[in-house]
Amino acid sequence: xxxxxxxxxxxxxxxxxxxxxxxxxxxxxxxxxxxxxxxxxxxxxxxxxxxxxxxxxxxxxxxxxxxxxxxxxxxxxxxxxxxxxxxxxxxxxxxxxxxxxxxxxxxxxxxxxxxxxxxxxxxxxxxxxxxxxxxxxxxxxxxxxxxxxxxxxxxxxxxxxxxxxxxxxxxxxxxxxxxxxxxxxxxxxxxxxxxxxxxxxxxxxxxxxxxxxxxxxxxxxxxxxxxxxxxxxxxxxxxxxxxxxxxxxxxxxxxxxxxxxxxxxxxxxxxxxxxxxxxxxxxxxxxxxxxxxxxxxxxxxxxxxxxxxxxxxxxxxxxxxxxxxxxxxxxxxx
Length: 334
Prior knowledge:
- This protein has a single domain (3-333), classed as 3-Layer(aba) Sandwich (Beta-lactamase).
- Strands 3-2-1-11-10-9-8-7-6 form a nine-stranded antiparallel beta sheet, with helices on both faces. Strands 4-5 form a two-stranded antiparallel ribbon.
- It is globular.
- Helix 1 packs antiparallel against helix 10 and helix 2 crosses helix 5.
- The chain is an alpha+beta fold.
- The protein has helices spanning 3-13, 57-70, 98-102, 132-146, 150-159, 183-186, 190-194, 206-218, 224-230, 306-315, 321-333, and strands spanning 18-25, 28-38, 43-44, 51-54, 202-204, 235-238, 253-259, 264-266, 272-278, 281-288, 293-300.
- It is 32% helix and 19% strand.
């Protein structure tokens, strides 16, 4: 069974509407597509189809931040509150640095809510707790320091250098072949849809994201020391997805998975990874600098991890602690 047949089979078995995949191997990009980008109009997914990539936004933003570090525009260890007071009056939040944000150790919740208001629930750097709020905090600082919007910075530092012509953080930008909103996405709040967000508003094609992954594999655009630090484990993740507000004693760590500066990391294999999930769109990317391979999968109408797991096993066989960790997270949320 060739790759295209495996993609189609995994999509059908996973009950997914549409899927695009891009694999980087031996320096080349191999693509595959299956299903529809718009079920009502019966439009097929193609190389031009733009997907919401959700949290695959985070490594792209991290790359831009590291470029700014190399240029001397900011420091990973500077306190962000000196530029933007994101959580006024919060003593712990005043200590948050860019490195804390990228490694998800700010102490912020993922997103503020009435049940979990915005504050730092533990001293920054103490432990891992996944947080989109932290990325927005750093986004605001980057915008202040550069005098540019997130979109302008991403275009200048990432999209244009890597030839990513169908990628944007700007929700208002239109493309001629975009995945139709799912029913879940139609229920999303206006603020989420209308605001550029470093943690989750990236829209891209599989090919464009693969262009970014090629830069990740080679370290293109970064000083060698910065490129190496990008993939260094900074904090082990919790074995179970307890959130920032949970007591410290509940956070038993997973010895096989850690987080670096914007990437999840499989400790033994040294594979990097990131997943994204938002309003019916799920994405996953994984790769290895040692092996020179990387994979990105973008989907719509998503119902579970099984399709992604099947495709990763075909392309990158072997134990994948990243997917086992994510599987536990998914089970907890059901």
